[in-house]
Amino acid sequence: MRAEQHARDITMKAERGAATLRARIQEEQQQAHAVVQEQHTRAEQRARDLIAEAERSAAALRARIQEEQQRTSADLQEQQARAERDLQENRKRADALIAAVTEESFRAKDAANQRIVELTTEAQVLQQNSEKLKNTIAALKNVIEGYGDRYVIPTYGLLDELAEDFGHEEAGQQLKLSRDQMRQKIKSGTAAACDYVEEHRKQTAIDFVLDAFNGKADSILASVKKDNHGTLSQKLRDAFALVNHNGQAFRNARITPEYLQTRIDELLWASRAHELKELEREEQRVLRERIREEEKAQREYERAQKDAQKEEELLRKAMEKAQREIDRASDAQKARFEEQLRDLQEKLTSAEEKNKRALSMAQQTKVGHVYIISNLGSFGEDIYKIGLTRRLEPLDRIRELGDASVPFEFDVHALISSQDAPALERELHKRFVRMQVNKVNPRKEFFRLSLHDIRQEIERMGISARWTLAAECREYKETLAIERAMQDKTFREEEWMQKQLAEQPIEQEKLAG
């Protein structure tokens, strides 16, 4: 009981403590609420004070800003007006300066253009004088030093043009036309000119330079040959330059370029006509040589026929005699005479064949041999002559080619028998035309190529021949050996010289005989 009472006491005490605590808490809350309320009120008041102060500051600031804006606007307007005035003045000064500069540039440009014209004119005059002086110097140099080979030009171009466009008569007609044009220019007064005003002096000066130039030109044209067209053409130009240079002392008395060209044309046609004349001479020479070769071949055929006929006649007589001997001979002797008779019969058959062959070749003018030969010592390596001969003995013709006109004898690489030797020779020359050694005169039958190429081409044509590929060139090789021995001092030179000199009179006697 006491415990329960004690518990109740404790509980009541606790409740009283809790009530006291709640009262205190409520009081504290009220106090706190009052404090908060007061602080809130003070804060609101402070806020209102701050807002009011801010509004006052803002109003003052706006007033100041407005005042500053008004003052700044006035300054800006004044500055803008001042800048506008400065801009207008600067524009005026710039326009004036531009106008002055433009005017000055126009004046400078006009002056520069005028100076350019003057300098161009001076340059042209100097260039003309320079060219004249160069031509004069070159002409004097040519006259003093000679022309040499500097102006030699290939004549093949001239001949080729002429072959395509003109005949020999045409060349002569054109030459005559050039001469007529030359005389016509002199008559019409277009051959020369002069700056003299007075007519008599002018004509005298023109006659002077014409006489001087024509004298030189006629002398130059008189020496025209087949191979000096380039040199003579330059001589005409040099004469033109020298005469015109000397004519400056007579108020620029001068030969006109047109008249010079007329004389050059005259030289050209004279050269072409001369070339054709030389060509005709060469054709005649080749024709005469071929006729001589044909006549020699014909004489060989006739001599071979006569020899064969004579041999036949002797053999027949010998056979008749042998037959008579057989008829009279005993049986023991008959065998020997019959053997002689058979031998004579074989010789007679051979002689008859020779006679027939000679007769056949004499009747057939195209039958012959095409030969391929070389001469290493005379012409060097890979130079071959391809020609033909109608001789019964073709080697005779080749030996003639190796006479005193060349230092060494020819080596034979092939002899091709042909029923139409001229046609075969022409075909081979045609196939090897690009390899000609002499590309001006096609009648020179030498070609620069290898023997292998020649053989290959002939075999391609279906022609068979016996070939000797290695050149013997015996005399040439012996000569080289002698020269080496001379250099090495291992050669009996005195003995060799005596032998060489001893053989010369024999040759002279042979020629005299």
Q: How many angstroms separate the termini? A: 202 Å
The best one-word shape is elongated
Mean pLDDT over the full residue set: 77
Low-confidence stretches: 149-167, 506-513
> Level of helix content?
over 70%
Region (Disordered): 65-89
Coiled coil: 276-361
Domain Bacteriophage T5 Orf172 DNA-binding: 378-461
Protein name: Bacteriophage T5 Orf172 DNA-binding domain-containing protein
What does this structure look like?
The chain has 513 residues and is mainly alpha-helical. The chain folds into four domains: 14-145; 158-284; 293-364; 368-486. The chain contains 13 helices and six strands. It has helices spanning 2-145, 156-165, 168-188, 199-222, 229-246, 257-328, 331-363, 376-379, 394-401, 421-431, 451-460, 474-488, 493-512, and strands at 192-193, 254-255, 368-374, 383-389, 411-418, 446-448. It has a four-stranded antiparallel beta sheet with strand order 5-3-4-6. A two-stranded antiparallel sheet has the order 1-2. The longest helix has 144 residues, at 2-145. It is elongated, with a radius of gyration of 63 Å. The protein starts with a helix and ends with a helix. Residues 149-167 and 506-513 have low confidence and may be disordered. Residues 71-80 have a biased composition (Polar residues). This is Bacteriophage T5 Orf172 DNA-binding domain-containing protein. Residues 65-89 are annotated as: Disordered. InterPro entries: Phage_T5_Orf172_DNA-bd, SNIPE. Keywords: Coiled coil.
